[in-house]
Amino acid sequence: MYQKMKGTYDILPKDIDKWLRLEKTIRTVSKIYNYKEIRTPIFENSELFHRGVGSETDIVSKETYDFLDRGKRSNTLRPEGTAGVVRSYIENKLYASNASIQKLYYMGPMFRYERPQKGRYRQFLQFGVEAFGSNSPQLDAEVISYAVNILKALKIKDVEVHINSIGDVESKATYKEALLNYLAPNINNLCTDCQKRYTTNPLRILDCKIDKDSEILQNAPKPLDYLNNESQSHFTETVAYLDAMKINYKINKNLVRGLDYYTHTVFEVNANIDTLGAQNTICGGGRYNNLVKSLGGPDIPGIGFAFGLERLMFALESLSFKGDPDYLHLYLMILGDEQKADGMAILNRCRLGGLFADIDFLDKGMKAKWKQAAKLNTRFVAIYGANEKENDVINVKDQETGKEITIDKHQLYNHIVEELMKPSAACESCKEDNCDECGE
Ligand code: HAM
Fold it and tell me: Cα(298)–Cα(3) distance, rounded to whole angstroms?
């Protein structure tokens, strides 16, 4: 009997629904961010990955599936999506289209010859995003918020966003020199992999899994301390935008990422799921301002990230996800015929603003309405009856926190959006009662 290849898995019919729903949520959030889908081949010319991802990276030097086709061309099954999307962006001259910025996303299989374990496969699925054409830190912040809002939409809360900057080419070169000088007298005390990396890929020594706690690495110079003025202000602005958007993050001075193309901002999202162990990085990304040019295109900056979908699915399953992330932001309970016209206006305003909202069209009793709101996985339930109408107010309950308040009825949309913006990851302050920061 044949068996599946090591590091691969089947998705059986009983599980397909939850995968479709995961994909649907990703597409919905992508639409909100105005990113368009792109589909590129699963194999490319091997050279693309050598030049794009970097021939000295683990991914390319140890993990690619390479094959010669019958025409003796060297092909590689894509180990990641960025290089192929950049190739397509250049080949199809997407930079010359009307929109000067291209915001793209993709979902599909990637292939890496790694040692399989839970959360690590040889064929795995990525959802990735690439945005081209702007070096604005606003775009860095948008891309990070996109990743965070995917998790919010899936209701995955126990996550940590780590960010760092490795700076532009000049800062990277200054830093590399400082790191090599610092490590020279100590290199023989590090693991054999790090000794190799010293000549091939020294930045990766910084996040070595074996040596990361050693005194040598603890005291090593950090990229953030070697940023030139431009790189420093890029990073400062990026984190200021994240603060403005109330996105929780940690600055991780050791984060360098495993692919060569990064410049400036790099980031990862870790999920706190015990069973995933070292495979708890569910998303990784960063800016790559020189990649398009180095692959033969114009000098156009880019930034992106990719989620591992199996790891996202593990995070969902740890929340006893039943395959139904469908949800509403608002379920409006209109009580009494005289309130219906006003209620429809309130509902319309919320929908125009982009909230997923609904009402009961069958004039059911209160108990049935609450049941329906729960069934529809509703975050906010608003009640608008005669009393509320008389006082121009509306009563809103946050089903997630249990908090209930009465507000000006014209403020319902603003109120919900404000609440949705609040950090849902466990921030330091919300471990305490009555935290001002998150209102819980
Ligand atoms: P990466 O960090 O190599 O980045 O991979 C992104 C995510 O893919 C990881 O955080 C992980 O969740 C998942 N992943 C990677 N390898 C495996 C595996 N063997 N099995 C299961 N999941 C895996 C990239 O691929 C970049 N292209 C991301 C990017 C896009 N940077 C800029 N734009």
Answer: 46
